[in-house]
Structure formats: structure tokens, C-alpha cells
């Protein structure tokens, strides 16, 4: 009879939790579910802020067997830099292992402090924060460079392992001075349902993600305006939680371009099967973001054999083999995006597009959560039982 693993207490520390929609929480949620299936107890420590809104969640709740402890930030610097104190609560929990999410964040350093106090192992998942300098403010670049130079190596060296979600961030970490042996590539994955639910043919265009400035949706809307001249009935669905000011800006642009009948905003979809159904209703998925670390929605739509078109950012470029498993266009170039959309909508190109869809699907199979989790779990058990 196979020996059962000891029930362990795991703590994730991340800035956002349910019901926020973001890549970091998506990863934490998926890993939590699989750890719970293995019989372990999972706790998440996060702020009480719901990302992209001015709303707050309750201080504690159990969501799908995940114990979520939330804390009100005492200081915020933008959307993704928040200071909050969970030291005593995490120390009292006394978990067997701590997993901190996102390099350079104050909660990561605090989680490290607790782990060393308790003499418990701690991992860091970096989440690829090494964006292009031109996408940051001057102050942002100064603070990032200052941290990397004076604190980065010293802080990172204190973690047992550093988990990277992409391969493109590895050179950045090595440049800081991190030993390759400490780095482990464990990307984000997608649930089995994306591969097991029967696929359906769809039509029209889809964007799935936050309606936020970083997603650069102006470029997509401008491209649709060009495409609509040839395909006046073309439909684009923008699906996700919206930052109200940005949504209003986009709605004004849509009205100016007379695209009210072509573009529809749809609220965030949390149910997995409903999300897959929404993807299946489309034929082409577009991700025009200014930056992406590892775009989850891109892999999900590839798994459903959709044509994917993305801007030339590091995250998308690592996943898409241009013109073979999808298409890459120069960020902000709405004319080029329109050309690609027109090519994909042309029925004469069906044979070539079918091959691209198949290559996209094959690429997506590398990101099945079941396979990725097994690698994570081996590493996890090695340190959690020390």
C-alpha cells in the first residue's frame, strides 16, 4: 500500500486574492487546489483590496477550502505596491512552508522575515517583473534599479528556491548575481478542462483580461475600425473586470469611430466552464498588451485551437512562434494588427490557419497544470519535510 504524505500546512503570500482577477492569484489558486487535493491545508495571506476596483473584501473567508486571511494596506504606491502587516498572524499560523509571490514587493521581504524567525523553508515566485524601462516611470526605474543593486542579491539568496514563471527572466536574475542552481523554471499552467471539454467552432474576435491601460485596448479598437470597412458586421467582445475611467475612455473612442454595434463589453467570467464557452464562441483571440509576464489567457485560447494574435512583448513572444502557432505584431501598430485580422478572416487562408491552430494547441499542451504541478510538488515536498 502506498504511504500517504503527511498533512502539511502551507502559506501563500500574495498581494491579491479572490475575487480579484490577475495572473498571480490565478497561479496561487490553482496550486492551492492541487495541494488541497493532496490532503494539505492551505492558507493565503493577501490585502483586502479587490484589484482594479475601489472595493474591499472581508478579513477572512474560506473559499473552496482555501483559508484566505486579508489585511488592509496602510500605504499604497500605485496598484501593485502595497504595504500591509501580517507578521504576527503568519507567525502564529506557523506553516510548514511559505511561498511568497512577486520579487521586489514589501510583503515578500516580510514573509522572508517570518520564515527565518520560524526557521521554516520559503520559496519565492518572481512573476517576471523585469519589464522594459520605457514602460516604467522615471521614479519606477530608479527604485527598481536601486533595489536590484543594493538589496536584490542579498534578499534573493535567502530563499531556498526561486521559481520563475518564464525563461526570459532567467538572464535578469543571473545578472543580479543569483546562482543558477537556486533557480527553478515552473511556469503557470491551465486546468485540464481546457483539454477535456469538447471544442466548438466560433466566430468573431475576443479579448479576455482586465480592461486596464496596460492592456493597450486602444490599438485593438483602432484595428477593428479598419477591419469593419471590409467586414461591417465584425464583432469584438472585451471580457473582463474594468477600471471604470479607462472603460469610459474606450467607450468614447468606440462612439467616435461609430463601432457601438461591433464592440461589446462583458463583465468578468469566474466560472471555468462559462469561460471556456466564451472562448469557444470566438475564432480569433487578440492580446495587444504593453507588457505581459506569462499571459494565461493566451495559453488558454491556444488550448481551444483558436487563432491568437499578440503584441510583441516578452511574455507573448516566448509562447507564440510567429506565423507558426500564432501571430506577433509590433505593439501600438493598429494598421499591422488590422492586416493580420483581415488575413485571418479571409476564408481563402483556411488551410494555413488550420495548421497554425494545430501548432497552437500542441504548444499549449506543455502548460497542463497536472504536469507542471508534479514538478512543483516534488520540490515542495523536498523542502517542506526538512
Radius of gyration: 21 Å
Overall mean pLDDT: 93
Shape: globular
CATH homologous superfamily annotation of the largest domain: Glycogen Phosphorylase B
Low-pLDDT residue spans: none
List the strand order in the largest sheet.
3-4-2-1-7-8-9-10
The number of distinct β-strands equals: 16
Quickly count the domains: 2
- Can you give the helix content as a percent range? 40-55%
**Portion in strands:** 15-25%
The N- and C-terminal alpha carbons lie at a distance of 24 Å
Class from helix and strand fractions:
alpha/beta
List keywords for this structure.
single chain, 386 residues, alpha/beta, Rossmann fold, 2 domains, six-stranded parallel sheet, 16 strands, 40% helix, 17% strand, globular
In short:
β9, α5 (170-176) and β10 form a beta-alpha-beta unit. Helices cover 40% and strands 17% of the residues. The protein is built from 14 helices and 16 strands.
Explain this structure to me?
The chain is α/β, with parallel strands linked by helices and 386 residues long. The protein contains 14 helices and 16 strands. Strands 3-4-2-1-7-8-9-10 form an 8-stranded mixed β-sheet, sandwiched between helices. Strands 13-12-11-14-15-16 form a 6-stranded parallel β-sheet, sandwiched between helices. It has a two-stranded antiparallel sheet with strand order 5-6. The two termini are 24 Å apart.
Amino acid at each position: 500500500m502506498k504511504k500517504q504524505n503527511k498533512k502539511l500546512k502551507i502559506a501563500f503570500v500574495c498581494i491579491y486574492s479572490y475575487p480579484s482577477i490577475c495572473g498571480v492569484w490565478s497561479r496561487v489558486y490553482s496550486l492551492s487546489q492541487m495541494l488541497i487535493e493532496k490532503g494539505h491545508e492551505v492558507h493565503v495571506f493577501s490585502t483586502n483590496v479587490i484589484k482594479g476596483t475601489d472595493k474591499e473584501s472581508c478579513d477572512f473567508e474560506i473559499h473552496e477550502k482555501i483559508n484566505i486571511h486579508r489585511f488592509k494596506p496602510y500605504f499604497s504606491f500605485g496598484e501593485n505596491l502595497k504595504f500591509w502587516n501580517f507578521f504576527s498572524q503568519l507567525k502564529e499560523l506557523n506553516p510548514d512552508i511559505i511561498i511568497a509571490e512577486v520579487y521586489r514587493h514589501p510583503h515578500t521581504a516580510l514573509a522572508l522575515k517570518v520564515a527565518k524567525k520560524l526557521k521554516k523553508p520559503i520559496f519565492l515566485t518572481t512573476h517576471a517583473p523585469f519589464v522594459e524601462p520605457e514602460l516604467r516611470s522615471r521614479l519606477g526605474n530608479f527604485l527598481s534599479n536601486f533595489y536590484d543593486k543594493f538589496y536584490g542579491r542579498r534578499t534573493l539568496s535567502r530563499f531556498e528556491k526561486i521559481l520563475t514563471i518564464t525563461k526570459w527572466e532567467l538572464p535578469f536574475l543571473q545578472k543580479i548575481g543569483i546562482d543558477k542552481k537556486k533557480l527553478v523554471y515552473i511556469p503557470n499552467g491551465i486546468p485540464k478542462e481546457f483539454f477535456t471539454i469538447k471544442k466548438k467552432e466560433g466566430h468573431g474576435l475576443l479579448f479576455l483580461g482586465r480592461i486596464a491601460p496596460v492592456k493597450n485596448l486602444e490599438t485593438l479598437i483602432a484595428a477593428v475600425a479598419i477591419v469593419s470597412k471590409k467586414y461591417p458586421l465584425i464583432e469584438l467582445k472585451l471580457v473582463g473586470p474594468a477600471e471604470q475611467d479607462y472603460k469610459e475612455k474606450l467607450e468614447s473612442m468606440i462612439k467616435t469611430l461609430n463601432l457601438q454595434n461591433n464592440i461589446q463589453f462583458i463583465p468578468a467570467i469566474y466560472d471555468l466552464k462559462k469561460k471556456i464557452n466564451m472562448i469557444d464562441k470566438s475564432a480569433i483571440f487578440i492580446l495587444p498588451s504593453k507588457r505581459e509576464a506569462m499571459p494565461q489567457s493566451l495559453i488558454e485560447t491556444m488550448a481551444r485551437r483558436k487563432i491568437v494574435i499578440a503584441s510583441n512583448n516578452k511574455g507573448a513572444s516566448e509562447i507564440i512562434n510567429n506565423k507558426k502557432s500564432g501571430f506577433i505584431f509590433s505593439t501600438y501598430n493598429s494598421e499591422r494588427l488590422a492586416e493580420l485580422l483581415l488575413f485571418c478572416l479571409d476564408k481563402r487562408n483556411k488551410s494555413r490557419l488550420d495548421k497554425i491552430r494545430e501548432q497552437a494547441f500542441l504548444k499549449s499542451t506543455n502548460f497542463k497544470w497536472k504536469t507542471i504541478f508534479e514538478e512543483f510538488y516534488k520540490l515542495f515536498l523536498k523542502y517542506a519535510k526538512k
